[in-house]
Design goal:
The protein has 458 residues and is of the alpha/beta class. The protein is 35% helix and 22% strand. The chain has 14 helices and 17 strands. Strands 1, 2, 3, 4, 5, 14, 15, 16 and 17 form a nine-stranded mixed β-sheet that branches.
Length: 458
């Protein structure tokens, strides 16, 4: 089969490969859905079946951004409970979230995906854990939205079985039974998970958090995931309140509790991990457990500063997450690149906490490691999947910053001239080409209003 080629030339390139190779002026050749050639100077002569040749001077090419933690449904509840810590925020919003239905979730997923994709995200994930009774096919709605958008996607099929009557935070009518949650998760894996190297859709098993699920659901969820060969995801060590909750209920801190339920290992990644002692970090490193760092959400909810430099020094795989747009209203990942650097410099390591290139690695190769896909995505290397972004760096916003990587991370959000996913364009000239942005804006506004009319003001 003929592999049609896209040739990109004359751009700066940050490959984020194992030695951080960069080219001040180089080329990338995409053949089909793979990177065929990358290097300094012009593309090789005599290439056949070239369907597009791009003069990308004034641009920086990077791997596509990889989002490792999100809650898409929250797109239609942005701007609420803006002055709450995590537990108070959850108590305030769960009664509203418990009223979502399939139409709302699809609209919210399209809004969340569109905002990320137009800002350079080529691989997204969604941790969806609220399945109110009679709400429809929520997982199918989310996966359908990702396929429509054209992005690579992992659905972390979440669940909750600990409602308020059992000491949890969500309302009882918003949780599932243990058996129902496990059966629905298994069905989602069987229907949608693709384990091919170039898979566009994958599924993870993802009970929500220690304070919303039973110990049995965690244990049985881990067994299910490993029997199906899929990854495991949940929230961990996000706040001091969570640590107190675990010690009061289980007699141990979050890391020890997760270890006791089978929830540590190279197939597991945890969201947040803000409150980690040295022993916790050593345990994560020793077991190969990954971390999704969500700096904007952590700041919004006053959760604290995660010890990212210490995690990286220990060898832990760390990626970046937008988190739900009810705790990170911007909804895009470039903010996380910048905030990861800035917020971590407020911690114990000061100006040595992170560099601009480390921040870029968190948002690309680090995220690919966390999702178990570093062999296919996360860096620009020959043979890898053609998920890449061309950032326009010659506008007023970046004109006086000589280093394009510094400009991308510390400067204003750069326009995306081209985003390829699996070798196919998703963004052109800072506009999504797979969907209608205005229509999505209208639909999400309508569904947010409908939800508020059902749930009442918050």
């Amino acid at each position: 089969m003929t592999a049609f080629r896209i040739v990109i030339e004359n751009c700066a390139i940050a490959t984020v490969d194992p030695v951080d190779t960069e080219y001040p002026k180089g080329h990338i050749v995409v053949a089909g859905n793979r990177i065929e050639s990358i290097g300094a100077g012009a593309a090789p002569a005599g290439l056949r079946d070239v369907v597009r040749r791009i003069d990308a001077r004034g641009h920086l090419a990077t791997p596509g951004l990889v989002n490792t933690h999100h809650h898409f449904y929250q797109w239609i509840t942005r701007g609420l409970a803006t002055d709450h810590n995590l537990f108070d925020w959850l108590v305030a919003l769960y009664p509203t979230w418990a009223r979502i239905d399939e139409q709302m979730v699809r609209a919210a997923a399209r809004g969340s995906l569109a905002m990320m994709a137009r800002g350079g995200v080529t691989t997204a994930m969604d941790h969806h854990y609220i399945y109110p009774r009679g709400s429809g096919d929520l997982s199918g709605a989310i996966i359908g939205a990702a396929r429509e958008m054209g992005v690579r996607f992992t659905l972390a099929r979440g669940s909750m079985d600990r409602g308020t009557s059992a000491g949890g935070l969500p309302p009882d009518f918003a949780v599932e039974t243990l058996d129902a949650a496990l059966a629905a998760t298994e069905e989602t894996i069987d229907l949608h998970h693709d384990d091919a190297s170039d898979a566009m859709t994958q599924i993870a098993v993802a009970p929500c958090s220690p304070f919303s699920v039973s110990t049995d659901l965690l244990r049985e969820g881990a067994r299910l995931a490993r029997s199906k060969g899929v990854r495991l995801h949940t929230h961990g060590s996000e706040t001091v309140e969570e640590e107190r909750f675990c010690k009061e209920l289980f007699g141990m801190g979050p890391t020890d509790y997760f270890e006791s339920t089978g929830w540590l290992g190279p197939d597991v990644w945890m969201a947040h991990c803000v409150h980690m002692a040295d022993a916790d970090i050593a345990t994560f490193a020793g077991t190969g457990t990954g971390v999704a760092h969500c700096p904007s959400s952590n700041a919004r909810l006053a959760a604290g500063i995660a010890r990212v430099p210490d995690m990286l020094a220990a060898g832990i795989a760390v990626g970046l997450g937008v988190d739900g747009t009810a705790s990170n209203e911007s909804g895009e990942l470039h903010t996380e690149l910048r905030n990861a650097l800035l917020i971590n410099r407020l911690g114990r390591h000061g100006e040595a906490a992170l560099t601009a290139r480390q921040a870029l690695r968190l948002g690309t190769h680090g995220g690919a490691r966390v999702l178990g896909r570093a062999e296919q995505i996360g860096s620009l290397e020959v043979g890898k999947l053609a998920d890449l972004v061309l950032w326009k760096m010659d506008t007023l916003a970046h004109a006086s910053i000589a280093d394009p990587v510094t400009a991308l991370i510390l400067g204003a959000a750069a326009p995306v001239t081209l985003s390829l996913v699996n070798g196919k364009p998703v963004v052109e000239d800072n506009r999504l080409i797979t969907v209608d942005e205005e229509e999505i804006a209208r639909t999400t506004r309508t569904e947010a209003q409908r939800l508020m009319s059902i749930a009442g003001p918050r």
